[in-house]
Amino acid sequence: VTVVAPKWFRRMTFTVEWVEPLRAAAAPVRDLAHDELITTEQSGAALSTALLVEAEYWMRLGQAAGYFPTNVDVEAEHRPVWVRIHLPEWPPMSASGMPETDLDALAFGRALDQARHDLTADRREHLRLTRFAPNEEWYERLEEVKQIARLFARNPAVALPDATVDRIAWSLDGAESQIADDPELPAHWRSAFAGLSQRTRRRIDEVEEVRKSIAQTALSVAGDERITAQVHSNALLAEQQTPRREQDSEEKGSNGFPGLGLGF
Amino acid sequence: MPDPTHERRTLAAPSGWVIYLSHDQPTRLVVFVHGFMGDPIGTWQRFPGGARDRAWWRACDMLFVGYDSVRDNITGVAARLRRWLPQLYPQLDPRIAEIGGMAVGTRDGSPYAELVLVGHSLGGVVLRRVLADVAEGWLRQREADPDAPRPHLLAARLCLFSPASAGFRAAGLLGIAQASSLWPAINMYLRRSSAYTDLQPESPILAATRNRTEALVEASPGDLDVLRARILWASPDNVVVTERYSSDHIDDAADGTSHSSVCKPRAAYVDPWAFVEGGGPP
User: Fold this and answer.
1) Which residues, in sequence order, are CB contacts of B17 under 8 Å at separation 6+?
2) pLDDT in tens, B141-162
3) Is A222 an 8 Å CB contact of chain B?
């Protein structure tokens, strides 16, 4: 075992843990010419291709931030045309050929960690479906979400099997990103940035429409619960503070229900 | 230019566990277990930064335990910790500190001398469950063999940030939405996931964990001090019931923090670092 400078260790770790698995996963679509040809089976590999290009950007930015070593070239990843339409023109290069950044190594490391951890299984599925899935699959999966939204609206107390919720989880928390929407960071393409392709923009709008309806039902459930909880707590308080004789008269009329500012 | 003092490795197993390896020779392992809808990095990522100014952290490796709080349950995560922590403490597998024949700093291979377990919210309940199970197992072993060695985990210190040991303040969807945010809450509500039901006020698993812990401490007060948590509550905490076990140390609260921010140190709020370093109220 050779003791090396931390920058070299980081580069090796990032390559082994992140880049190499992405390269292997992206291989099936390496020679694909158009995104219209991407099948459901290939769409996961297409997402890996985009993440691989993003990883290259992280490597270059990490060099500029002093996180990765600069005395070794970053290998340019294969960029098919169909993946380029999903990624912004990035990074802006300085005269030295490296991206310009104000990030130091510590801040860069945090941003990279967050970007990796943001890719939960549900988040990946959201990215795969909105960016790379063929139309037929997209509308089938969107319809599943619509059906659950209608069911939830009809019966807000509904409890569903795990497998059913797993199937639509991409449209619930899978649609939410926990990372800062910073145009200077390589993960920016995963957010709803201005350069989204027309097809992706339309898909995000379509699923957002259904999400609004789900959120509305959820807020009504939570609102009812808040009233119930407040009534319960008011009753307890009254019992603790009010002499028995006065309680009898208070029970005849209630007042002071709280507002429904849910504050999520 | 600030430079990291630790290097990250993702463990091959269990899935989602990440260790930050110190550039210096470590003498202790600090294990972090996130809460409801937290993640191993987002919840704790400010902790490694403390090593720049606080020498205590440079002598630590930090293990960040990840789990899926929508789909996992308390018992399952606790069992995973019970199974895997003994493989990392007191002796870390040297292969974890190497990659491709490279290592950062020279480690002399000596075992850690100290273990600190840190939990936030649901993570606090998970850790209490782990320790109650390990302690109970050891006491049973001692009935058969009075010389049965004490498990290393029972030599730890337990530091909890706003643990959910007494459940959410509000029941139902409202409670989980306050503990996380709307969308994960909907996800859990629709499936009535295990963690969702486990954290409802007066849930059987919360009551059982409390009863077992208090009884164990009472039965073996000196041997099981690890079960007596030190707690730092958010103030105000609008998410969990801020009630400690009768066996815990006297608790404290950090004014001006929320349930989510109480465990996130920064330059103007160093209490979380100090709390874990000292194990007591800052």
Assistant:
1) B10, B11, B40, B63, B64, B65, B66, B84
2) 999 999 999 999 999 999 999 9
3) yes
